[in-house]
Amino acid sequence: xxxxxxxxxxxxxxxxxxxxxxxxxxxxxxxxxxxxxxxxxxxxxxxxxxxxxxxxxxxxxxxxxxxxx
Length: 69
Fold this sequence. Notes:
alpha+beta; globular; 28% helix; 3 strands
């Protein structure tokens, strides 16, 4: 993941966090339809590697957001 998340080629650097509407270079990309639909919809977390265990990744995201909310 360190080699992929360099901040180049439509990725955010591994040691930085950002979000943005339709921003393919952000850590979290918000599709353009979300703000126009009253901020209802999905988010795209662009940080996990494609070979990661989706269940473990999902569990970490859920645990992290539970502690923030």
